[in-house]
From TrEMBL:
Coiled coil: none annotated. This is Secretion system C-terminal sorting domain-containing protein. It comes from Niastella yeongjuensis. It comes from the Bacteria. Residues 522-597 form the Secretion system C-terminal sorting domain.
Length: 599
């Protein structure tokens, strides 16, 4: 019999032999250690924590913890690397963001003084030793003195190891503006992004800040969340979405409540392509959680009881701050930050919500029964949040009081450590070719291809080995040389990890009657949750699929690669409201359209 700890409680296996099982506290050198970012290495679950040491000057640090909570003795002196760039009397280099490239290289983003200017800083460090590999400084400001500010607040490493960052740039005419820049895998400014600049400076309204960044793995679009009208009483959420090439898709501000000061500090993309943005609103200063559709509209249908907005105050007298938001495999949402106690001190806090924005009462460490919230109270100074990550069945949360605080919490909504981004089939004369793509794998062992003639009883017809561990896009295929010719073929993937855990893909249906497909077909129609899509022959290259409502808004989108043969795939429509929708498929100059009804 296996016993599982309450989800949202400290994981006692982390730092199990230390004084504080479930978390560690590290004092680097007796000064004030500020944690800003964290990343978990998929292959061994070790953790890199980044930030800066504030001892009057500011010195960048990276700490490397092994999976048991001990510092890695092979990384720098005693598990911590410190770095500062000296070119002037301004002795400041700090990290606000961190990521990992596919070869294990650490990428940090922040800012440093170069002579009299505060510049973007991108540094790459050896993941095993902490040795500096490369460093890049960029100043996009048109103010050439210490008031000319360029700062990186967040970054994301792309599947091709390029680096996209966001932050602020101070401009003489418009003040602080939200900035997005892309760097090559080697860490130099990538001038093919918003060609030939390599960066974008976006003036929203007043002083603007980019605080958080993510990438839509389906479209490749880059989404930044931040603040417009910062330092003004009525500041607003700011959202900027650009293509992978740096071309504008949409940008907007959102005033959550009239007269309130709203600040977005975290963003994530859920399994339906919605943008989930977290931050605070001072109405009073509560956690604010907002969900936008891929087109940028508030999700009034499925989130926040018809408002698209959820606010949470931990106690009646508290003030909250938010550093992170993550989406579980089941679309539940976890927000990390801190909350103020009646004494005026701050504790680290986690809050979990269901897919509709209701607090999930099955989560938390409150007693005698959980209430959806987890608080971590330490003695001494206030606890400030730095970053939170979800990896397998663990939630990793890093912050600081005057020292580094790294905690690991249990999470009972375990997701197979794999992201299946597409699964489709092509009918080719007398065989069926199945193709699928993953964008993340952690300890994945294999894919079993299963087939059925009735959609109920499945048998395995082949096995394809998985890459195992990867944060890059991986493509797989399998050919069924002997499909059923007189009845439908039902296909699914059984995806298994090294520990024996598994889950199934959606089911594909191939109607193998030997006839060429000449139009876009959808079935069942009407449908409740899964729409089977059959694309016609002749659509070659990238096929863009869009679900559009009758008001012309794009509700969902997906991209597939086709060699011109008829292609079958599925689309999840379970979250759509009842009604009539248009399905549009486009490849180059070829466009086909069909309609379906969501029951």
């Amino acid at each position: 019999m296996y016993m599982y700890a309450q989800s949202g409680t400290l994981d006692g296996s982390f730092n199990a032999l230390g004084a504080t099982p479930g978390y560690v506290i590290t004092d680097i050198d007796g000064n004030n250690d500020i944690v800003k970012a964290m990343v978990v290495k998929p292959s061994d679950k070790s953790i890199y924590v980044a930030g800066y040491i504030d001892n009057g000057d500011k010195t960048l640090f990276i700490a490397h913890y092994l999976s048991d909570g001990s510092l890695d003795p092979a990384f720098g002196p005693g598990g911590v690397v410190k770095y500062q760039y000296f070119t002037s009397s301004f002795n400041t280099t700090l990290a606000n963001a961190i990521g990992l490239q596919s070869d294990g290289t650490i990428v940090v983003g922040g800012w440093t003084y170069v002579d009299a200017n505060r510049d973007f800083f991108v540094g790459r460090f050896n993941g095993a030793t902490g040795a500096l590999i490369s460093q890049t400084y960029n100043n996009f400001s048109d103010i050439n003195d210490p008031t000319g500010v360029d700062e990186i607040n967040a970054l994301v490493v792309l599947p091709d190891d390029k680096i996209v960052v966001t932050g602020i740039t101070e401009m003489a005419a418009t003040g602080s503006d939200l900035t997005i820049a892309r760097y090559t895998a080697a860490g130099t400014l990538d001038n093919t992004f918003n060609n030939p600049a390599g960066y974008i400076v976006q003036n929203m309204a007043g002083d603007d800040i980019g605080n958080a960044i993510t990438v839509d793995k389906t479209s490749g679009d880059i989404i930044v969340a931040g603040v417009a009208n910062d330092q003004i009483v009525n500041s607003d959420f700011a959202i900027v979405r650009v293509t992978s090439a740096g071309l504008p898709v949409t940008s907007f501000t959102r005033d959550l409540f009239t007269g309130s000061s709203d600040k977005a500090t975290a963003v994530a993309i859920d399994r339906n392509g919605n943008m989930v943005v977290a931050g605070v609103t001072n109405n009073p200063q509560d956690i604010a959680l907002v969900r936008f559709t891929p087109a940028g509209a508030l999700d009034l249908l499925n989130f926040g009881g018809g408002t698209g907005i959820v606010t949470t105050g931990i106690t009646s007298t508290s003030g909250e701050n938010v550093s992170s938001v993550i989406i579980q495999d089941d679309n539940k949402i976890v927000v990390g930050g801190n909350t103020e106690r009646a004494s005026g001190d701050y504790d680290l806090v986690l809050v979990r919500y269901d897919n509709a924005g209701n607090i999930d009462a099955a989560f938390g460490n409150t007693t005698p029964t959980p209430d959806g919230k987890t608080l971590l109270t330490l003695s001494g100074a206030d606890e400030d949040p730095g970053a939170m990550l979800l990896s397998g069945d663990k939630i990793y949360f890093a912050g600081h009081n005057t020292d580094i605080v790294l905690a690991v919490f249990t999470n009972n909504n375990y997701a197979l450590p794999l992201v299946l981004s597409s699964f489709y089939a092509q009918k080719q004369t007398s065989k069926v070719v199945l193709q699928w793509q993953t964008t993340s794998e952690e300890g994945v062992k294999q894919f079993l291809i299963q087939r059925s003639s009735d959609g109920k009883t499945f048998q395995s017809i082949g096995t394809v080995a998985a890459t195992g561990n990867s944060s890059l896009t991986k493509n797989y295929s399998f050919a069924d040389q002997s499909p059923f010719m007189s009845t439908s073929n039902y296909y699914r993937l059984l995806m298994q990890d090294a520990d024996g855990n598994y889950k199934f893909s959606k089911i594909l249906i191939i109607k193998f009657d030997g006839q060429l497909t000449t139009s876009l077909s959808v079935f069942p129609n009407p449908t409740n949750d899964v729409l089977q899509v059959q694309l016609p022959d002749g659509m070659t290259g990238t096929v863009a699929l869009q679900i559009i409502d009758l008001n012309g808004r794009v509700i969902k989108r997906n991209n597939l690669a086709s060699d011109g043969h008829a292609l079958n795939t599925t689309m999840d429509v379970s979250t759509l409201i009842r009604g009539v929708y248009i399905l549009k498929a486009q490849a180059g100059n070829t466009t086909v359209i069909s309609r379906f009804i969501k029951k």
